[in-house]
Amino acid sequence: MRRGHGAQEKGVALSHSMEDYLEAIYNVKIRNQVARVKDIAREMNVRMPSVTGALRSLADKGFVQYQPYETVELTQAGLNHARGIAHRHTAIREFLTGVLGLPQEEAEIEACGLEHAIRPETLDRLLKLVDFIRVHGEEDNAFRLSDFQSYLRNGSDPDGHVSPDVCYLPATIRSTRLSELCPGMKGRIAFVSGRGPIRRRLVEMGMTSDTQFEVLRTAPFGDPIEIKIRGYNLSLRKSEADHVEVEVID
């Protein structure tokens, strides 16, 4: 991405402002299941007419479905893009507070600007650095830059042991698809995306907003995934779990 331009989805460019609106819609839906114009305006600290104008633009580009006086829905392209922005934001904020020691309020402001410029490859390394420091940086003289660079090259820890190919979700990610969670992780269902038969099937299986669950196990390549929900075990195909947006619970 060249500096000064928004990210792209299938060739469609988004300004930084439009990305901020997508992120706001996603965050509102994570908390409330639905996103209304007034909720987005409150999240963005702008007037409602500004929101409606932005929603029309996002709808024209295929990122949201919006009709006046109705709730705002993210398309699949919009959801994927919004989730990525939210992940960048939380990762950068964690780095600024946890590693650089910036106050929370300052880190939030800085993250809002930096999240639009960082490339996915750079973000991936930033996430790994935050987690590496989280694991090894608390011990006296435990963190060495050469150890981290070795970890980036071959996946080995400071003792030279190669990390196994296991399920992994960076600690900075607080909301994502159910299919991304690892065994032992717990979460709260925020909302079910998509329409039609798959949505009805998921809702009929008990995948409704605010329901808590625990991931019991995942098969190779994450398909299927078994969770405990409402007191019973439920097996989901990865394609089904991809449609369930969740909030991670510690």
What does this structure look like?
The structure is a single chain. By secondary structure, the protein is an alpha+beta fold. It folds into two domains: 1-118, Winged helix-like DNA-binding domain superfamily/Winged helix DNA-binding domain (Arc Repressor Mutant, subunit A, Orthogonal Bundle); 175-249, Ferrous iron transport protein A (FeoA) (SH3 type barrels), CATH 2.30.30. Helix content is 45%, strand content 16%. It is built from nine helices and ten strands. The chain has helices at residues 16-32, 37-44, 48-60, 76-99, 104-114, 120-136, 145-154, 197-204, 238-241, and strands spanning 8-9, 12-13, 64-65, 73-74, 175-177, 186-192, 212-218, 225-229, 232-236, 244-249. The strands form three sheets. Strands 5-10-6-7-8-9 form a six-stranded antiparallel sheet. Strands 1-2 form a two-stranded antiparallel ribbon. Strands 3-4 form a two-stranded antiparallel sheet. α2 packs across α3 and α4 (76-99) crosses α6. The longest helix is centred in the middle third of the chain and has 24 residues, at 76-99. It is globular and about 55 Å long.
Task: Furnish the topology, listing elements before pairings.
Blueprint lengths: L7 E2 L2 E2 L2 H17 L4 H8 L3 H13 L3 E2 L7 E2 L1 H24 L4 H11 L5 H17 L8 H10 L20 E3 L8 E7 L4 H8 L7 E7 L6 E5 L2 E5 L1 H4 L2 E6 L1
Helix pairs in contact: 1-2, 1-4, 2-3, 4-5, 4-6
Short characterization:
The protein is an alpha+beta fold. The protein contains nine helices and ten strands. The chain folds into two domains: 1-118, Arc Repressor Mutant, subunit A (Orthogonal Bundle); 175-249, SH3 type barrels (Roll).
